[in-house]
Specification:
By secondary structure, this protein is an alpha+beta fold. The strands form four sheets. The protein has a five-stranded antiparallel β-sheet with strand order 4-5-6-7-8. A three-stranded antiparallel β-sheet has the order 3-2-9, covered by helices on one side. It has 17 helices and twelve strands.
Length: 553
């Protein structure tokens, strides 16, 4: 499509500003990639570096850092967005019918969304997002509509994209420079929309031209007046060939919601890119590689020590293997002996220090949280394990909240909107038509975080149990129905497993009626027997009869 020269100049200026803002992070990302996952992000290397480093990995001698990071990423994946169990629920604010039509509709919508996620590449994409967050503190994934699987997710590699945030700290601008072959460009944008260079490569008679890699620019930003896209769309994206004809774009289109998620682990100030646990552990990881190398040198010297030999042996064959014999001339010959007499490398001390470094790295990556039970030296009670887990979950609280706000919420909004446009969302009940849904996360980590907040309730109930032995009247203080209901919700008990408040009142009324009937059944025969006995008693009449009646009372 045609765009003005002024618009092409503006796009180039936006990329220049985004590139300048990202520049300070580039060196740090390079170092992180070298010491954690060097073969993953070739965009952080020059072409020559990429060719040289493909042959070997010159930085990692001990994989503790990489393993610890992958353990954290896997734990977050299973704890937040596990494909094998529900991890979110939908509700309409103000409607708490618990089993009514509104709740049933919200549950059905969540069920359908789970099916779409599982049948697309959503969960594979999420696994990559967690890796990027753990190692680099920033991740970017685009979510597009797909004819076959409803949605399709595309993970963008660190180093190829740029981010910028609005005044509220939310990412609202995304740009990237990436490679695509001439054949892919023609298939994606059409033969009429690509440049003459791309057309000639795609139509090359030898067939090899369509595999030629070309640089493409992609910018996703808020819509603005004069963009050429309808104002109803909140965001627009533009594709164009880098170095292609000025004033010509491959594509420009609008979106009702931002078609991507851009989570950050932790943000400092107004930075557009996040920090990560791997940045905190980097000094320890570098020290670990250095000490591992020094330990290997010490072992090498201990096994094959440097030696000094008599000058007379310089051109004589020697046999230094077991059972070998070396013939030496001269009675005062020194023969062959180690250079370091009486010296041994401190292998044990170095091994202990390396062990300490590994523990520090694993703690930075929260590995004890996910390996807690398997790493306990002795058998502990379930209460102690829960207490330890809750203590460490508090450390992940802010991270989980940010991830929900920057990744899960926009992902669910995007998927819901795509499904709604495709007619995959059932019609809502009449009373909630047009109202917005709220998301409640019920994953393992989200539930555990809420369970931490329920700890005061547990302590209060335990205290009441102790006090009730000497002051039973204190049991009237709590509102037991609401206390138990709210506690169940806090620890993740589903609402469908609870009776509604109306049902509870009906059950209480039925129990009261049954109890009254049981008491009547017991007291009734006693009254009848007493009346019969009284009627058969000879009281003698007169005042004596009155006295006996009063006495039997």
């Amino acid at each position: 499509m045609e765009i003005s020269v002024a618009e092409a100049t503006r796009l180039a200026g936006v990329f220049s500003g985004l590139r300048h803002d990202r520049k300070p992070f580039w060196t740090l990302w390079r170092e992180l990639a070298d010491f954690y996952i060097p073969k993953r992000y070739v965009w952080l290397q020059t072409d020559r570096e990429s060719r040289v480093r493909k042959a070997k990995n010159p930085f990692i001698l001990d994989s503790t850092g990489t393993t610890a990071g992958r353990t954290l990423a896997s734990g977050l994946m299973n704890g937040i967005t596990s494909p094998s169990r529900p991890w979110f629920k939908l509700r309409v604010p103000g409607y708490d019918d618990e089993g009514g039509p509104v709740t049933m509709w919200a549950d059905e919508v969540a069920r359908r969304m789970m099916i779409v996620m599982s049948e697309s590449n959503f969960y594979n994409s999420m696994a990559t997002i967690y890796l990027d967050l753990v190692f680099f503190g920033t991740a970017a994934t685009l979510i597009y509509e797909d004819q076959e699987s409803v949605i399709r997710c595309y993970n963008c590699a660190l180093g190829e994209y740029y981010l910028s945030s609005d005044e509220n700290g939310r990412v609202n601008t995304f740009g990237r420079e990436f490679l695509q072959s001439a054949g892919q460009l023609v298939s994606r944008f059409g033969l009429d929309n690509v440049s003459e260079t791309v057309r000639s490569l795609a139509n090359n008679k030898d067939g090899g031209g369509k595999f030629k890699q070309l640089e493409v620019c992609h910018l996703l930003e808020p819509n603005f007046p004069g963009s050429g896209v309808a104002e109803k769309f909140k965001f627009i994206e533009t594709y164009w060939e880098k170095g292609g004809p000025k004033g010509k774009a491959l594509e420009r289109r609008g979106f009702n919601e931002i078609p991507g998620i851009f989570p950050r682990w932790e943000v400092t100030g107004n930075d557009n890119y996040g920090t990560s646990p791997s940045m905190d552990a980097l000094p320890d990881v570098i020290q670990l590689q250095l000490e591992t190398k020094l330990k290997a040198k010490g072992l090498d010297k201990a096994v094959s020590p440097p030696v000094v030999a008599d000058i007379q042996l310089q051109h004589r064959p020697t046999a230094l293997l077991p059972n070998g014999i070396t013939y030496v001339t001269g009675a005062n010959s020194v023969g062959v002996k180690p250079v370091y007499s009486g010296y041994a490398p401190p292998i044990q001390e170095m091994t202990e220090d390396i062990r300490d470094i590994r523990i520090r790295i694993q703690e930075v990556f929260y590995n004890p949280l996910f390996n807690m039970i398997s790493q306990l030296d002795t058998v502990r009670s379930a209460t102690e394990i829960d207490a330890r887990r809750e203590e460490k979950l508090v450390l992940l609280g802010s991270v989980l909240e940010r991830f929900e706000a920057e990744a899960l919420n926009p992902a669910i909004d995007r998927i819901f909107a795509v499904m709604e446009r495709k007619g995959l969302i059932p019609d809502p009940p009449q009373e909630i038509a047009g109202q917005k849904l709220d998301v409640q996360y019920v994953s393992i980590l989200a539930t555990a975080q809420r369970a931490v907040a329920a700890a005061p309730t547990e302590r209060w109930i335990a205290l009441l149990g102790q006090i009730a032995a000497v002051a039973p009247e204190t049991l009237a203080i709590p509102n037991w129905d609401e206390l138990i209901r709210n506690y169940g919700i806090a620890i993740g008990v589903e609402a469908r497993n609870m009776h509604t408040r109306e049902e509870v009142e009906q059950i209480k009324q039925q129990q009261a009626e049954q109890q009254a009937a049981q008491q009547a059944a017991v007291v009734g025969p006693e009254l009848v027997d007493g009346a019969k006995t009284l009627s058969e008693t000879d009281v003698g009449g007169g005042s004596s009869a009155l006295q006996m009646l009063l006495a039997q009372g």
